[in-house]
Amino acid sequence: MDVHDSLIDLIGNTPLLRLSRIEPGLGCTLLAKVEVMNPGGSVKDRIGIRMIEAAERSGALKPGGTIIEPTSGNTGVGLAIAAAIKGYKCIFIMPDKMSQEKISLLRAYGAEVVIAPTAVPPDSPESYYRVADRLTAQIPGAFQPNQYFNDDNPRTHYETTGPEVWKQTEGKITHFVAGVGTGGTISGTGRYLKEQNPDVVVVGGDPEGSIYTGSEPRPYLVEGIGEDFWPDTFDRTIVDRWVTVSDRDSFVMARRVTRREGLLVGGSGGTAMCAALEVARDLGPDDVMVVIIPDSGRGYLSKVFNDAWMLQNGFIDRPGTQARIGEILSAKRRIEPDIPDLVAVGSHESVGRAIDILQSYGISQIPIAKSESPDDIAEIVGSIHERSLLDRVFRDRDAIDREVVEVMDPPLPVIQATSGVEEMVVDLSKGAEAIVVAEGSKPSGVLTRADLLEFLAHQGPDPTK
């Protein structure tokens, strides 16, 4: 029987996946190293067990000890799996920007989780680095692997990830791409690949706000990569090219990869993919690019894959806001095919006739024009509204027989069919109940608040995002 005795035996040897749908027409071969296939779901499984076993050999971690680590979540999972198997306690300190899924996952393994603020300098007593240091000093038998300064971090990737990539591509790899956090993955893997072929280009993906590609660190929302200091585990000489990626582009790309390739990708994977594609667009058929997909999107369902969270943070557009006015008019025509494109009342028609037209089409406002079929918006001279007509007729019964030009309201606002929805919203927010849609100088229809609401109700965020 093909059976493994420990979950630890399943770490590494993750597959390469050809990405052919994310951007058709690329000239090179684009391959993803799918680290989600590790038992803990991320590339950090590799270093978790290695750092613990090294500490056991050195005597830094003894039976019954406590593992303490500042982590964005994935390293914690790798350590927690090893600790569960080996019988250690765990305390993890996480920044407060991390998803609830990650916190709950660590607690599921029996770990204690301490939350520290993100928006403080790394040397602040409140930072998650310093909280971890303080707990390590206070708790007897505690050991901090410290992935930011532990040589076993990049060494693990030099000894495992690098050789795997080289073997899987049969030495044909020309470009290696990874998001940079502690720097262990890109330093260790990149060093090994460059030793096999010095021409391999190593590309680092970095969030906007990280110190790696910025002069001053500032907050950002992508989890697990970028830093506000330079870790000892990062060899900056290994990176040949940097690509800086915004939060929005990272999250939108993660959703795009998921929906086009069927590969559920987290925000840091989105960063790496953005960097990969920027470089890959200039490559040719002899180039083979491997990009590290460090973890799954399962840890970000409440954020990256939550439309409400994405909307709240401005990373996707509100439903329908990118539509043109002409699209709303076309949608209305499909819903109400029996109503003419433009219903108008001649200026010399009686108020009674106007009321009949309103009732026959079930509408509450109508343009007044020089004729019932105006060919130019200049022919529209006013409008009538069910609400104001009721008030006028109630106070003056003789108004029924008057010409509408005597009782009409000002003309409805005119918006071109090529204009965006926001322009219509502005007019409606100023008190207008409807707008006239024009194609050039020709009026082509009327849209109301109800029409806009009907349209927006059937829209959703761009399915590619």
What is this structure's SSE topology?
Layout: E1 16-18, E2 29-34, H1 45-58, E3 66-70, H2 74-86, E4 89-95, H3 100-108, E5 112-116, H4 128-138, E6 142-143, H5 152-159, H6 161-168, E7 175-179, H7 184-196, E8 201-207, E9 241-245, H8 247-261, H9 267-280, E10 288-293, H10 307-312, H11 325-335, E11 345-346, H12 351-361, E12 365-369, E13 380-385, H13 386-395, E14 414-416, H14 421-429, E15 434-439, E16 442-448, H15 449-457
Parallel strand pairs: 2-10, 3-4, 3-6, 4-5, 7-8, 7-10, 8-9, 11-12, 14-15
Antiparallel strand pairs: 1-2, 12-13, 15-16
Helix pairs in contact: 1-2, 1-5, 5-7, 6-7, 8-9
What does the model show?
- The protein has 465 residues and is an alpha/beta fold.
- It folds into 3 domains: 9-42 and 152-312, 3-Layer(aba) Sandwich (Rossmann fold); 45-143, Rossmann fold, CATH 3.40.50.1100; 325-457, CBS-domain.
- It is 35% helix and 17% strand.
- It is built from 15 helices and 16 strands.
- The chain has helices at 45-58, 74-86, 100-108, 128-138, 152-159, 161-168, 184-196, 247-261, 267-280, 307-312, 325-335, 351-361, 386-395, 421-429, 449-457, and strands at 16-18, 29-34, 66-70, 89-95, 112-116, 142-143, 175-179, 201-207, 241-245, 288-293, 345-346, 365-369, 380-385, 414-416, 434-439, 442-448.
- The strands form 4 sheets. It has a 6-stranded mixed sheet. A 4-stranded parallel sheet has the order 5-4-3-6, with helices on both faces.
- Helix 1 crosses helix 5, helix 6 crosses helix 7 (184-196) and helix 8 crosses helix 9.
- The longest helix is centred in the middle third of the chain and has 15 residues, at 247-261.
- It is elongated, with a radius of gyration of 31 Å.
- The model has no long low-confidence stretch (mean pLDDT 91).
